[in-house]
Design a protein that fits this description.
Layout lengths: L24 H17 L1 H8 L7 H20 L10 H25 L4 H12 L15 H29 L18 H29 L4 H12 L17 H15 L2 H8 L5 H4 L1 H23 L5 H16 L14 H13 L12 H19 L8 E2 L2 E2 L2 H27 L4 H13 L6 H4 L10 H15 L3 H4 L9
Antiparallel strand pairs: 1-2
Helix pairs in contact: 1-3, 1-4, 2-3, 2-6, 3-4, 4-5, 4-6, 5-6, 5-19, 6-7, 6-8, 7-8, 7-9, 7-10, 9-13, 12-13, 14-17, 15-16, 16-17, 16-19, 17-19
Length: about 500
């Protein structure tokens, strides 16, 4: 949430009347903190690289010094803007600009480590947006510092999108997210204080779940390095691994089950965890997003598991576990793989393609359309049919016991239409870039929904994005960022009217 110096909201409609000249300094001031902060985080992989006998410190030292210096210069140049309130349009500009800048900044170490600039930006964009698509082969041969950096990018990207989703998008009225404005907060309390406390709580919960996941992974057989990396990419629902075989490298059913639990944790609204810790022990059974999501995934898992057994895929227990892992991995947009689920037949492929778009819950690290929009769309369809039969009938619009305002109702419709229109446009563009129809459609779907693996031999669970042409990689990098920003936050700054 962006605030003025008195702690008042500034992310609402702009006052009518005479237009004031827009200042870019407050935007640059916020971005300077981001640039310097990203540069400072490079010190962690720098120490890991320095610990190697043949380490190359320049991989992280040079980008760290450059970005911290640039951030400091911009911060000093705009120091008088720190107390200025960001208006509605500046909030959009900060959000879009930050997610465009981050892949470019964090790609520098990857480029110095040996990737081309195109591949480095693609990998960084995939990491920060928690998509999980990769262009790197032979992960086991890469330095631990680079592998850690990829995982860390997903971890900070995951917490970044949680904060964006629960603190910014609702106040920017993006895609119906205004449903999730902090309705439970005490309105007499200063908003600035609430925002700080809220963000700190989110960080504590996120870090605690990550630590718990890492400990369990280590106890169940992973090395310490693998446990840390996979914990970061599990909670962020990112899916980067330290092995080419992804999570399939680990054959322990206990590890697979643990991953399922923590992938689901990453796809659940983090506000639900906060309410649970505040004493509402039944919240996981009361929240409509969580209950609908878990029930849907359970139905799909059982259906695919039983189908796999009937099709001669093996014993029921193993089939259900493989189905559960694959369904949860794709639906939560994590993208880990233990088996090639595309070999389960055309029907299974169609189901996983649907799950690619589904995503997780609002206020989680997962991408996709989000389950609450599916629930709202269901209400819209039922409401329309009832009013078709009885035009004079008044049907209320509610979600989670709250009345839905017209802007939230229409925002969901607009978001879904723009989401699929963007998916189609990029699929066509990828076709012009030389991709076959299946690969183009699947790659566009995984990018806009931030899932990772697609369908087909090239980019499927057993494939890799390395062989795609550079033009396709740039298109997908842009689409991943657009999808992570719920599309509208990214597209709105491209409107000519935005700059009037």
């Amino acid at each position: 949430m962006l605030l003025n110096s008195e702690g008042s909201e500034t992310l609402g409609p702009e006052p009518s009347g005479r237009k004031e000249p827009r200042q870019i300094n407050p935007v640059v001031n916020v971005l300077s903190l981001l640039i310097a902060g990203l540069g400072a985080t490079m010190i962690i992989p720098l120490f890991i690289e320095l610990a190697r006998p043949d380490g190359h410190a320049v991989i992280f030292a040079l980008p760290m010094v450059a970005t911290v210096t640039l951030g400091a210069i911009l911060l000093v140049a705009t120091r008088g803007s720190a107390q200025l309130a960001l208006d509605h349009r500046q909030a959009f500009l900060v959000t879009a600009s930050s997610w465009v800048l981050m892949p470019l900044i964090t790609a520098m170490p990857l480029a110095l480590a040996g990737l081309s600039w195109t591949d480095a930006v693609f990998e960084a964009a995939s990491g920060l947006t928690t998509t999980g698509s990769t262009v790197i082969h032979g992960l086991e041969d890469w330095p631990h510092s680079v592998l850690f950096w990829r995982s860390f990018l997903q971890w900070i990207g995951g917490v970044g999108i949680i904060v964006t989703a629960v603190a910014l998008l609702p106040f920017m009225r993006v895609g119906g997210m205004q449903l999730f404005r902090a309705e439970s907060s005490d309105q007499s309390e200063k908003i600035e204080a609430r925002a700080h406390i809220f963000v700190v709580r989110i960080l504590v919960i996120y870090a605690s779940l990550t630590a718990l996941c890492a400990i369990l992974y280590a106890l169940l057989g992973m090395s310490g390095f693998d446990a840390l990396n996979h914990a970061m990419t599990t909670l962020s629902t990112g899916g980067f691994s330290t092995h080419d075989a992804s999570f399939g490298y680990f054959e322990s059913p206990a590890l697979h089950l643990t991953a399922i639990i923590f992938m689901l944790a990453g796809a659940i609204p983090f506000v639900v965890f906060m309410k649970f810790l505040n004493g509402n022990r039944a919240i996981f059974f009361e929240d409509p997003q969580v209950t609908a999501y878990v029930v849907l995934l359970l139905i799909i898992t059982v259906t695919l598991g039983v189908w796999h057994v009937i099709d001669g895929g093996g014993p029921l227990g193993a089939s259900l576990l493989n189905a559960a892992f694959s369904v949860v991995s794709v639906a939560t947009t994590t993208g880990f793989a233990t088996v090639d689920y595309t070999s389960w037949g055309a029907a299974a492929g169609a189901i996983f393609f649907f799950l690619t778009f589904l995503g997780g819950c609002a206020g989680s690290t997962a991408g996709g359309i989000k389950i609450y929009r599916v629930l709202v769309l269901y209400q819209i369809v039922v409401r329309h049919m009832r009013q078709t039969i009885m035009p004079s009938r008044v049907v209320s619009r509610n979600f989670d016991g709250r009345h839905m305002a017209e802007d939230a109702w229409s925002g969901v419709l607009v978001m879904v239409v723009v989401f699929f229109a963007t998916f189609g446009a990029f699929a066509v563009a990828l076709g012009f870039a030389g991709l076959d129809p299946l690969t183009a459609l699947s790659a566009s779907a995984t990018a806009i929904a931030n899932v990772g693996p697609g369908l087909g031999e090239i980019i499927g669970p057993s494939g890799n994005f390395a062989t795609l042409p550079d033009s396709a990689k740039w298109l997908l990098s842009v689409e991943m960022v657009a999808g992570r920003l719920e599309v509208l936050s990214f597209l709105v700054v491209l409107l000519p009217e935005f700059w009037d």
